[in-house]
Amino acid sequence: MPQRALIEQRPWLLASLIAGISYWFVAGSWIPGLYLILWKGAGVSLLAAYAWRHHPVADAHRIALVMALGALGDMVLEVSFTGGALAFLLGHMAAITLYLKHRRSMGQGEKAVAAVVLLAIPVASLALTGRPEVAFYALGLGGMTAAAFASDFPRQRVALGAAMFALSDLLIFARMGPMAESAVPHLLVWPLYYFGQFLITVGVIGALRAKGEFTAL
Fold first, then answer.
1. 81, 132 in Cβ contact below 8 A?
2. Are 118 and 140 in contact (CB under 8 A)?
3. Contacts of 78 (CB under 8 A, 6+ apart)
4. What is the pLDDT of residues 22-36, one digit of tens each?
5. Distance between CA atoms of 149 and 191, rounded to whole angstroms?
6. Going by C-beta distance under 8 Å and a sequence separation of 6 or more, which residues neighbour residue 3?
7. Residue 103's beta-bridge partner residues?
8. CB distance 120 to 171 below 8 Å
9. CB 4: neighbour CB atoms within 10 A?
10. Which residues contact 82 (CB under 8 A, 6 or more apart)?
11. Which 8-state DSSP code applies to residue 165?
């Protein structure tokens, strides 16, 4: 997309990219905590605003809700791990509802892949942390990722974005266990998560537009 078109036609996306990318550079810096929390939530909040403001149909508003809950989780996570996880879990439930509404016809091999994804993510989360409550959350994460794969939204955007989100969370769980001293989670968790959410949003909105549900930018 040309830069001028992005600025003029999709300012919410441009603002989201600026907020999301810049947060990676300032995380853990001297900026006061409250401002940093708001900065962290801004990137995905602006994705929610993009989906809600320019696309007046129910499914666009559903993905806006998913992003709003994600942004809430981003911020609450800084003060309460449990509260943040709950916000994300609610977002996963909303996403699953949307994706299952747009199911694609799948062969047996694709169904097997979806089942493996659904189960592998909570199993891996339990193995990394040894905490059943984390595995319970990860069951929702696995459901969201599998449902994205099973939906008729473009896999190169929506399913890929969901997989990036899941990998980001698995790195967080690894940081709670075997990768506690590694710099890899610190470097990769945020970009995987943010760009995963970005791909999900633009993938869903683009698919809804292609289906003729709306013509607005």
1. no
2. no
3. 33, 36, 37, 40, 84
4. 999 998 777 878 999
5. 21
6. none
7. 151
8. no
9. 8
10. none
11. H
